[in-house]
């Protein structure tokens, strides 16, 4: 799950897309996007596509979907368009296409495909979901201690939801992935392509999976890395997320024990870690960059979780060693967290982009009803990850849906792909965020349609991990050549 990249200035004239009708086979009028050089890089093109906020009411309110393109660098060898989504929910596909695609994809992929990124509705340049900064900063703990705390969390989430709807407009209520899938097919039509190629990472795999369900015959190739299993219930989701985060912690410990350059080498890393979180629980650990701020155990665990994505084990070991070395101070000398300054009365209300819950809570029917149910989920999560104390981001994601309406635009279900070509899936065995079991579950649901290539190492990204992973995707995208049955990619020499 990634950070939102907001595109500034991608405001080329919009072209309204034709009514797609239901996800069936209605004939549509072809439209073109009015491309202009991107403000950040004139070698890339930016534009917008005007689309319905609610695909069930295509003549009602519209919004502008931000799109960016890098044309194939060898037009004579061009295969087609490669739509990309880097994940999130909340990461910017426009930013990926403009700033990151040239370093992410191989020269061969860049030569042969027009790489097209888009900001999903509610993200970046596509009418972003915005919320009051002051209200966002007042969030209660995602770990309520009793029913009263749970009720406070639910009330806060309801207030925040109304605030975000007020600042964002009707797109907030239609930020679900199924709506994004309809938008993606509108992009295909606007580009004049009968079929697309697609590369989706992490949450972007859910977009790909559901596109394959709805529009499978409009796919030439589809490569998905770090896959999402959209059939999971709340308990399975939380426990499997916690288990894979804990597995990444265990991988870090093993690395440190066998690597002399590790800042914690020669020590009992697990004991150091557990003691550090216990000291944080007592308010004894300070933020090295803001010494007046106390670091919570959850904040430390979240920092470790982020380092597992790389994985950046050297940096994590140095970070933990530095926190562990902090001297204990008498309680009366310990600084406390300072309250956030409030905007002066009469000042314009400040907002910031915050699309995560608008997407997540409309894609997943996670609505714990009361503290007892929520506590049971949390206890199961902690049992699965006793050292990392669960998966910090996933726990916060589920907590953010407490108190939301029960209606979900895009509820979980088993994948039903009937018309798509073979789809290539890659997944790390030691992914900190998306459990490898999610990939095997998706593959089991779509066995006749998908091919799963495991990467036996650690980290969240997969494509550029090794020659094996990169070549597998490149060969598939360019030549539709799939790995042979039972193929696996061994861990890279250096994570």
TrEMBL record:
<dbReference type="InterPro" id="IPR051601">
    <property type="entry name" value="Serine_prot/Carboxylest_S33"/>
</dbReference>
<feature type="domain" description="AB hydrolase-1">
    <location>
        <begin position="81"/>
        <end position="306"/>
    </location>
</feature>
<dbReference type="Pfam" id="PF08386">
    <property type="entry name" value="Abhydrolase_4"/>
</dbReference>
<dbReference type="InterPro" id="IPR000073">
    <property type="entry name" value="AB_hydrolase_1"/>
</dbReference>
<dbReference type="GO" id="GO:0016787">
    <property type="term" value="F:hydrolase activity"/>
</dbReference>
<feature type="domain" description="Peptidase S33 tripeptidyl aminopeptidase-like C-terminal">
    <location>
        <begin position="396"/>
        <end position="489"/>
    </location>
</feature>
<keyword id="KW-0378">Hydrolase</keyword>
<feature type="compositionally biased region" description="Low complexity">
    <location>
        <begin position="336"/>
        <end position="345"/>
    </location>
</feature>
<dbReference type="Pfam" id="PF00561">
    <property type="entry name" value="Abhydrolase_1"/>
</dbReference>
<feature type="region of interest" description="Disordered">
    <location>
        <begin position="325"/>
        <end position="353"/>
    </location>
</feature>
<protein>
    <submittedName>
        <fullName>Alpha/beta fold hydrolase</fullName>
    </submittedName>
</protein>
<dbReference type="InterPro" id="IPR029058">
    <property type="entry name" value="AB_hydrolase_fold"/>
</dbReference>
<dbReference type="InterPro" id="IPR013595">
    <property type="entry name" value="Pept_S33_TAP-like_C"/>
</dbReference>
<comment type="similarity">
    <text>Belongs to the peptidase S33 family.</text>
</comment>
């Amino acid at each position: 799950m990634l950070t939102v990249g907001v595109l500034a200035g991608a405001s080329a004239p919009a072209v309204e897309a034709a009514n797609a009708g239901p996800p069936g086979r209605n004939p549509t009028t072809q439209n073109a996007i009015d491309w202009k050089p991107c403000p950040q890089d004139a070698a890339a093109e930016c534009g917008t596509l005007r689309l319905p906020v609610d695909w069930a009411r295509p003549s009602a309110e519209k919004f502008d979907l931000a799109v960016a393109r890098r044309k194939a660098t060898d037009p004579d060898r061009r295969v087609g368009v490669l739509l990309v989504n880097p994940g999130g929910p909340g990461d910017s596909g426009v930013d990926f296409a403009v700033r990151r695609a040239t370093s992410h994809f191989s020269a061969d992929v860049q030569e042969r495909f027009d790489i097209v990124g888009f900001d999903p509705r509610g993200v970046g340049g596509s009418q972003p979901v915005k919320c009051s900064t002051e209200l966002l900063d007042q969030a209660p703990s995602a770990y309520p201690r009793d029913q009263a705390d749970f009720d406070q969390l639910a009330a806060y989430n309801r207030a925040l939801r109304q605030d975000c709807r007020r600042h964002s407009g009707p797109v907030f209520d239609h930020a679900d992935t199924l709506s994004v899938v309809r938008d993606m097919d509108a992009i295909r039509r606007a580009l004049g392509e009968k079929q697309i190629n697609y590369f989706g990472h992490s949450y972007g795999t859910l977009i790909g999976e559901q596109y394959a369900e709805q529009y499978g015959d409009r796919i030439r190739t589809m490569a998905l890395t770090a896959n999402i299993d959209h059939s999971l219930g709340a308990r399975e989701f939380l426990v499997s997320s916690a288990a894979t985060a804990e597995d990444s912690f265990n991988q870090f410990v093993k690395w440190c024990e066998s690597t002399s350059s590790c800042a914690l080498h020669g020590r009992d890393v697990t004991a150091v870690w557990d003691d550090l979180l216990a000291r944080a629980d007592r308010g004894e650990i300070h933020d090295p960059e803001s010494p007046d701020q106390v670091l919570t155990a959850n904040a430390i665990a979240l920092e470790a979780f982020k380092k597992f994505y790389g994985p950046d084990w050297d940096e994590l070991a140095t970070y933990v060693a530095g926190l562990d070395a902090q001297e204990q101070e008498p309680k009366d000398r310990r600084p406390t967290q300072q309250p956030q300054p409030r905007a002066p009365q009469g000042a314009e209300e400040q907002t910031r982009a915050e699309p995560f819950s608008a997407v997540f809570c409309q894609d997943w029917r996670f609505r714990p009803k009361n503290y007892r149910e929520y506590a049971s989920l949390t206890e199961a999560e902690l049992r699965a990850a006793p050292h990392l104390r669960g998966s910090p981001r996933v726990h916060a994601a589920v907590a953010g849906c407490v108190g939301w309406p029960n209606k979900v635009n895009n509820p979980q279900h088993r994948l039903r792909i009937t018309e798509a070509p073979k789809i290539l899936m890659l997944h790390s065995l030691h992914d900190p965020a998306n459990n490898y079991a999610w990939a095997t579950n998706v593959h089991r649901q779509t066995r006749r349609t998908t091919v799963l290539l495991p990467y036996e190492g650690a980290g969240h990204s997969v494509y550029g991990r090794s020659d094996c992973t990169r070549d597998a995707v490149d060969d598939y995208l360019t030549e539709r050549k799939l790995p042979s049955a039972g193929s696996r990619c061994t861990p890279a020499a250096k994570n």
